[in-house]
Design brief:
homodimer; 15% helix
Amino acid sequence: MDPHIASVPLDKATRLLNHGPTVLVSARHDGVDNVMAAAWACALDYTPPKLTVVLDKIAKTRELVEQSGMFVIQVPTAAQLELTYQVGHRSLSSEPEKLADSGVELFAMDGHDMPFVAGCSAWLVCKVLSELHNQQAYDLFIGEIVGAWADTRVFKDGHWHFESADPCWRSLHYIAGGHFYATGDALDVDTGPRG
Amino acid sequence: MDPHIASVPLDKATRLLNHGPTVLVSARHDGVDNVMAAAWACALDYTPPKLTVVLDKIAKTRELVEQSGMFVIQVPTAAQLELTYQVGHRSLSSEPEKLADSGVELFAMDGHDMPFVAGCSAWLVCKVLSELHNQQAYDLFIGEIVGAWADTRVFKDGHWHFESADPCWRSLHYIAGGHFYATGDALDVDTGPRG
């Protein structure tokens, strides 16, 4: 495994998503891997950590999630802007070479038979908590986070370090079309005793 | 109404949340108003537009949402950093003057008997789509967006203009403790014809 990748304690896992980044969702079933982009993913709970993600019925990745009951949420970086846009706009159904054509390289994490996207800043392996009404009525999936990792060049000791890392590590925040914003400056409130 | 505030077409309303900002949730019932901060809010659907928000059982605002069936999601700005932190860490139950002490000024929007927080960049009035299982098991509320507005100094013609607006208009992205990031630089993908 890449020596820069370190596991993140599960009780800190939601911090990887708190800033609202656009994520990549990947899944594997029966020898098929796919990766999609999702702007609509969000932390849901701390203990055990959970998240929500919206997966449209036309998404091939959704089929793989439903079949395998597992998925990976990963946080792409500014360096992966083009990759993120491409996996969000190409479909594996019509483009069998979607992943290669989008520049996606997959890697393995020990003990998890899942497709992890190389070059991201964080990875969250999730087990689907089956909620068929939400899935059918709202395309809303709930995942329990069962493993979390981050690249220590940007997330270390339970904290993001965007302010000191190279700007290429900033997260992406999708708006529409080809338009994103990067995560910006740190803003800190003085949390000392209140007057 | 403030001449800078303009309504946003409902089919563009999710753009106000796509970049994953920390939001303020406000609600009113039986003469009581409250405002809380929530990092866990997310768009859910385009038509009709919907969103999700996690409201903990200890939150007084949640009671008002459950009683009235309505809430407002608003997007605070970097200029409201301290306000956002304060409404997220003070409780109306123990501090009756929470809103005034946190610097919150409420205003009215024509036709909506709801508490809107002045100085935000965007406002979304939501009607609770009652899903008792989600609310009880996950503290997860689904709202249908029935009205949307933005301050035209930062969101106009269906687009955020963070790159040209004063930095005080940037959105906030909460991590933990007193630590936030502002929305950062625009990143654009060339969406022209693919080769």
